[in-house]
Design a protein that fits this description.
The structure is a homodimer of 202-residue chains.
Chain A lengths: L11 H9 L14 H11 L11 E6 L2 H10 L2 H9 L2 E8 L6 H4 L6 H4 L3 H25 L3 E5 L4 H8 L6 E10 L15 H4 E3 L1
Antiparallel strand pairs in A: 1-2, 2-4, 3-4
Helix pairs in contact in A: 1-7, 2-7, 3-4
Chain lengths: 202, 202
């Protein structure tokens, strides 16, 4: 039975935790993130929608010192130390051949055939929908009491080559550190636009 | 003072509402969405992170019968009736010249200069980060007790031309209906992958 929550606004503190008080951190407390927490994040984020349930995101969770060093080498100068210090940094990649999985991911119809022979369309769909999944990942991590530090300052071709070597159709797109944020490492909150600035109602 | 929520896992019912029980709807109850609700969604989603706070998303909220018809004409056959029936359908677009706004959106440093002369990089950043914003939009709408129906089956060039005519550097990217979902219009839940399928921990 489908449960609905019409007009049920989440408590203010929950909205604060995932949207309003949450911040992007540049440094981390020395406190580990467990495999259970990593899987809890994924078990939430995977429930949120992607187009035709394509789930094109492929995720490498970097947790060992050795692999953090390897990833840090490929990060921009400003991001190297962040990657080394974070308990986990997840690489968000996308699979250009996600359509091969559609027969089981979207069993209602033959969605695979929509994408066959259209590599450009697949690349666009994979890019857009893996970005959605990355956003779900950030809010899922926050919803279990963790903080995030998303970063795009990284040599993506290098990360693709180093971390998706066994998946030749996957491209790395950005990275996101996860852990317990260190309050002393955040900037002042950047301004947010009023509704009228970037929105129109017609 | 920055408030933190370390190890505070949101109540199961909140996680159900935004991730686990929420569904993508194909039809809508005859119940309006107010301007206050639209603004409440934006006021939450705008707090979530984008790269250098670029906030490249530009949003047109289609609420009037006349404009719904105009948008429905540009939707794929399977989506026309959904757009006509939904209380609101928001067009998610992105501004390729978002960097012009960075002096006030990211006042910590001269981020505008990072993007000048690099239209390809701006397009990629705008595409990725407006997708993140669209994902925040979906979870924000759910968090105030509304349902979503995201769709990419739409003539994007047509929507760009018709709905962003006054913003020549903005491109439409996808659309998302918002309202009170009609339970009778959903498919069976599509399968979700186990952690091991698309994740690696290193």
């Amino acid at each position: 039975m489908t449960k609905q929550y019409h007009d049920n606004v989440l408590p203010g503190e929950a909205l604060d935790q995932i949207f309003r008080d949450a911040r992007t951190y540049n440094g981390w407390l020395d406190k580990p993130v467990s495999q259970d927490q990593i899987e809890a994040i994924y078990d939430l984020m995977k429930m949120a929608p992607t187009s035709a349930n394509m789930q094109p995101g492929r995720f490498v969770w970097v947790t060992s010192h050795e692999q953090k060093d390897r990833l840090a080498e490929l990060a921009s100068d400003g991001n190297k130390d962040k990657v080394r210090a974070a308990p986990v940094t997840v690489i968000i990649g996308y699979d250009i051949d996600f359509h091969e999985e559609l027969p089981w991911l979207f069993p209602h119809t033959d969605a695979k055939s929509w994408f066959e022979g259209d590599e450009e369309g697949r690349k666009e769909g994979a890019f857009r929908n893996s970005a959605l999944q990355g956003a779900y990942l950030i809010l899922a991590a926050r919803s279990i009491g963790l903080d995030c530090g998303p970063m795009s300052g990284v040599d993506l071709d290098g990360v693709t080559k180093e971390f998706f070597a066994d998946q030749p159709r996957v491209k790395a797109d950005w990275i996101c550190s996860i852990g317990y944020g260190d309050k002393t490492t955040i900037f002042d909150r950047s301004p947010r636009p009023d509704f009228a600035k970037f929105n129109t109602v017609v």
